[in-house]
Please model this.
Amino acid sequence: MPEPLPETTAICVGEAMIMLAGGPGPLADVEVFRRSVGGAECNVAGGLAGLGVPTGWISRVGDDGFGQHVLRDLQARGVDVGGVELDPVRPTALYVKESENGRSRMHYYRTGSAAAAMQPSFLDRPEVSGRLQQAKLVHTTGITAAISTSSADMLERLATEPREYLLSVDLNWRPALWRDRDPAPLWRLLKAADIVLIGADEAEVFAGTGDPDVLYEQLQTPVLVVKNDAHSAIAFEGGARTEVPALSVEVVETVGAGDAFAAGFLAGTLQGLSMVERLRLGHLNAAAVLTAPEDHAPPPAAAERERLLKASDEQWAATKV
Model:
C-alpha cells in the first residue's frame, strides 16, 4: 500500500532555481559564488512553513545535484516535497546574481528546465492530485505561467476545474518571459483566482495602471492585495478597503521580499486573522527578508510577531527593523 500523504494545509506550485551569488563586481571578475535556493513559489512555501502552516511544494526538478540540493533545502525548512517529480534529462534551473555598485542584476538560465516541462497531465500524478485534494489553499505565480506554454496550460486547468481550495496567484510580472507571447492566459489565471497579490509598479506595465481601485474593478477577484513598494499594502475584500503602511527597514537585499509578504499574508488568511493583521504579517515577513542577503529568511520570533500584530497604529508606524 502507498504511504499516507502528509497533512498539508497549503500547496505551492512552481519552479525552483539554484541561485549563485557572486561577490561585488562584474561577473567576468568573480571567481567564487555562494549557492542558495530561489524561485517564487518555493520561497513562499518555505515562508508559510516558517510561520507554522503545514506546506507542500509541487514541481519538477532535474535528477541532478542542484535538484537534490533544492529538495534537501526545502525539507530542512519544513516543506513537504513528496509531490516533486525528478526529470532524468532536463536540468534544474539556475540564476546568477551579479552585484555591482550596490545594485543587483539577475541572469537566468532556465530555458528547457525540468519545471518548464510541467503540463496538464502532471496534475494527474497521484502524488500531486492527492495533495491538491486535501489542500485548503494553493498558491502559484505568473512566473510559472510564463516559463512554458505547457505550464501555462497546467495552471489554466488548475484554475478552471472544480476545487475545494482557495487559489492564490501572485502576478510576478516578468516582461522578458512574455516577450512575443500573448499574456491572455495570465489574465485568465488572475481572474479565476480567489486571492491576487500584485505590485503597483508591475501592474503599471502589465495592466496599464497601478491604481488599486482601478485594478480591483478590472480583476473583480474576491481578495486583491496591491503592494505599493516600500510604502503600504492595500487589500480589498467584499467591498472593504484596508491599507497598512510598510515598516521602516534598513534594506540589505530586496529580492524575495514580495514572496515573503505573500507567505505572511496567506498564513494570516489561513489562521483566520483580521485583514489588518494579515497585511501586517505580510510586512513583518517581508522585513525579515529585506534585512538578509538571501531570497528567504526566518520570520520574526513568534512573541515579536504577536506583539506587533496587536500593536496600535502609532506603535506599528514607529517600528523600525
User: Anything to note?
Assistant: The mean pLDDT is 93. The first helix runs from residue 40 to 50. The chain has twelve helices and 15 strands. The first strand starts at residue 10 and ends at 13.
